[in-house]
Specification:
The protein has 754 residues and is an alpha+beta fold. Among the domains are: 93-189, 2-Layer Sandwich (Beta-Lactamase); 346-492, Reverse transcriptase/Diguanylate cyclase domain (Alpha-Beta Plaits); 517-753, Alpha-Beta Barrel (TIM Barrel), CATH 3.20.20.450. The protein is 50% helix and 20% strand. Helix 10 crosses helix 11 (383-399) and helix 16 packs parallel to helix 17 (608-619). The N and C termini lie far apart (135 Å).
């Protein structure tokens, strides 16, 4: 008889197998948990990296925008000051060099220029420090002799070989340029402005030209030292920078903002933004480690901890989330906490404002404020004192706030406030008290200087929730106060509303004007450059009210573009031109091709092609006498759709003209794939024909067009000299006031008969 209890081997084997199965199950559970944890942590790490990179980009963008505003205010303010001085001298009618220099010596200490100088048309410069130099070949002198105010690229000072930027402005008498006012500005001054600490002293800033050449380099110890070209410095710094250099070249060439990572001993983020001054770009740099060190540490620790038990993985996940929150908080502080004053940034102010609106505060007043002529504080007392003033103003505004109220700093000396009130007069009284507190700041022991705060006030309308519109209204009131020059504040009024309403009314009237046949077609002739015979015309829409008054195209065309009504206007002009061409054919006149403008709005609705072809067929006009123009910028907004539309139009027999060529969007490589027949050279090219670089560019464009079998029409030709030059370089047709202004149909018919 078999007894299991008497057979320990079988019993032990059963227990062993059971325990083995349990061990295998536990091991599988742990392994599975670890695998799930590894996958989860990997996905989480990827998401964290992407979020942090997005925060990095946003932070760099915010810092870059702040720097741009500071530089623009500095440069544009100096140029505006020089223009004002030039206008004052012109108004005086003074032509004696000594007298002019005496005037300049008396006022130059008010500005941040290195010195000032005056030269007659011969280009001999006489300065306020009694130096004399020949600047006749300098670009800024030539530009101002043509009547332009100008900012030069960095130059070497002829007096002491210091690196400078030269501001120049024309001095006129009876409309003629009789001299040029010049003022060099030290590049080192811009370096000082850009050297303001950012990213806890780890960040720094360059200014470069589109070709990468240095305008202003950085004094930061980790920056490229003695940089002359950013591309060269990046290439020499590390062979891994090849792709970053290529990406940066594309960003600068396209004239847009951009973001790359490069290496200079350590990995660094580089954020590039057009400066809005000449063809310069602002480049902000911050080490990758500074922005991502914490997250990388967390991620690496996560991968190491995945080798432990699943229980520990849960602990790590909890720690990871906490670290992520701390990292985000750190970066958000860069976005939302003003580094100088410790108060809110504009971004944070907007968030708080939105919150106040949502909790239904009844009476809200938005305040825009700055210090009039604050630049003078920096010039007279230095940037350290200027920063002290800004901190004092920020503190004063914060201390004036009551429950539910708050402030923010947008840039430089500009602040915003939200005040709550029962009656509007309370706001005005509080503004006056704040102004008094600000003016109590004592700047100098020896020099009496009174700060002049200026406020714009906007009272929120009940139910209004558009934050940007509200801030714009406060800004408009602030601008009014600045322009007045005799008060502390201005309140946004219905006057400004009225101007906006007028714009809206004009927009509403467009449809009525169309139905009432108030739109008419004008024609600007084009002439063959060699024979001076009529070769074509451009059709232009004009708005003539019933009383005969003309509405400027500069007013109604942008409104029509904005609303989409421009497509209907384009079709109207196209139909009128077809009918006019048919009438002239029936009269036996020798007609020439007429080009009709095609708005970029048509790219959204390719069905217009069939509609246009039906109109043309109905008129009976041969297709070679109707051409289509579209602007250069429209061609590159939706390239693929544009190419398809142009190919269809070509297949039908339409000739395509590229309008405004050279206004900043052209890609020569793209011209190979875009089927155009004629390039219309923009007026800006024509105006610069007598400049060496301008002439060279025009000649290159002409050769390129010839190679591509593309005809050239020059726009905006106004002088005989321009005409003769364009003829000499092979321009095919001429359009501009030199031959004829835009004219109504009756006058154009007379031209055809001539």
């Amino acid at each position: 008889m078999f007894c299991p209890d008497c057979h320990p081997t079988i019993r032990d084997r059963s227990v062993f197998m059971r325990r083995k199965r349990e061990s295998i199950f536990k091991a599988g559970y742990i392994i599975g948990l670890l695998m799930i944890s590894v996958i989860a942590f990997a996905l989480y790490s990827h998401r964290l990296r992407e979020e942090l990179r997005e925060l990095v980009r946003n932070t760099l963008k915010e810092v870059s925008n702040q720097n741009i505003l500071v530089v623009q205010k500095e440069i544009e303010g100096d140029l505006a000051a020089l223009e004002e001085i030039a206008e004052r001298i012109s108004a005086l009618g003074e032509t004696d060099e000594k007298e002019i220099l005496e005037v300049l010596k008396r006022i130059e200490e008010r500005y941040s220029f290195k010195r000032m100088g005056y030269c007659r048309t011969d280009g001999i410069l006489h300065t306020t420090v009694d130096d004399v130099a020949d600047v006749s070949e300098r670009e800024y002198f030539k530009a101002s002799m043509q009547g332009e105010s100008y900012i030069s690229d960095p130059l070497i000072d002829l007096m002491d070989e210091e690196e400078i930027i030269v501001f120049s402005a024309p001095i006129k008498s009876d409309g003629e340029v009789i001299g040029v006012l010049c003022a060099p500005y030290r590049v080192d001054s811009l370096k000082e402005i850009l050297a303001v600490s950012s990213f806890e002293g780890e960040g720094y800033t360059y200014i470069v030209e589109r070709d990468g050449n240095k305008v202003v380099d950085s004094t930061h110890p980790t920056s490229f030292q003695n940089m002359t070209n950013i591309f060269t410095s990046m290439t020499e710094a590390d062979q891994r920078n090849y792709q970053a250099v290529e990406d940066l070249k594309r960003i600068l060439n396209d004239g847009r903002t951009g973001y790359v990572i490069f290496y200079n001993k350590v990995g660094k983020y580089m954020y590039t933004t057009p400066l809005g001054v000449k063809d310069w770009f602002l480049i902000d740099v911050v080490p990758v480690d500074f922005m991502e060190n914490t997250s990388n540490y967390i991620i690496h620790r996560t991968y190491l901890m995945c080798g432990f038990l699943a229980v520990i993985c849960a602990v790590i996940a909890f720690a990871l989330m906490n670290e992520e929150r701390r990292k985000k908080q750190r970066i958000q502080n860069l976005l939302y906490v003003d580094e100088l004053t410790g108060g809110n940034t504009l971004a944070r102010f907007k968030i708080e404002l939105e919150h106040r609106i949502q909790v239904h505060y009844k009476n809200i007043a938005l305040i825009k404020m700055d210090l009039d002529d604050f630049k003078l504080v920096n010039d007279l007392f230095g940037y350290e004192e200027g920063n002290r003033v800004l901190r004092f103003v920020g503190k004063t505004l914060q201390e004036s706030c009551r429950d539910g109220e708050f402030t923010g700093r947008s840039n430089a000396d500009r602040f915003v406030m939200l005040l709550l009130y029962d009656e509007e007069r309370e706001v005005r009284q509080r503004i006056l008290k704040i102004a008094e507190d600000i003016q109590s700041l004592h700047l100098s022991e020896t020099l009496e200087y009174l700060l002049h705060p200026v406020f714009g006030i906007y009272y929120r309308e009940p139910g209004e929730d558009n934050i940007e519109d509200m801030l714009d209204c406060a800004s408009l009131a602030h601008n009014m106060a600045k322009q007045a020059k005799n008060g502390i504040y201005r309140v946004y009024t219905n006057e400004i509303k009225e101007k906006e309403l007028q714009k809206k009314q004009l927009s509403d009237q467009i449809e009525h004007a169309y139905k009432n046949h108030e739109f008419v077609v004008y024609y600007q002739p084009k002439y063959d450059s060699r024979t001076q015979k009529l070769a074509g015309a451009e059709a232009l829409v004009r708005w003539r009210r019933p009383d005969g008054q003309m509405v400027s195209p500069g007013l109604f065309v942008p409104l029509a573009e904005e609303s989409g009504f421009v497509c209907k206007l384009d079709e109207y002009v196209f139909r009128e031109v077809c009918l006019a061409q048919k009438r002239w054919l029936d009269k036996g006149l020798g007609i020439v091709p007429i080009s009709v403008n095609l708005s970029r709005r048509h790219l959204d609705n390719p069905e217009f092609i069939d509609e246009y072809k039906a109109i043309l067929d109905e008129s009976g006009v041969p297709i070679e006498y109707i051409q289509l123009e579209i602007t250069e910028s429209a061609m590159f907004e939706k390239k693929d759709e544009f190419v398809q539309i142009m190919e269809r139009l070509h297949d039908l027999g339409f000739m395509i003209l590229m309008d405004d060529f050279g206004t900043g969007y052209s890609s020569l490589m793209m011209l190979k794939s875009i089927p155009i027949d004629v390039m219309k050279l923009d007026k800006s090219f024509v105006d610069d024909y007598d400049d060496a670089r301008g002439e060279s560019i025009i000649r290159c464009v002409m050769r390129m067009a010839q190679d591509l079998s593309i005809a050239i029409t020059a726009e905006g030709v106004e002088t005989e000299a321009q005409y003769r030059f364009l003829t000499s370089v092979g321009c095919d047709t001429i359009q501009g006031y030199y031959f004829a202004r835009p004219m109504p149909e009756e006058e154009y018919e007379v031209r055809m008969r001539a």
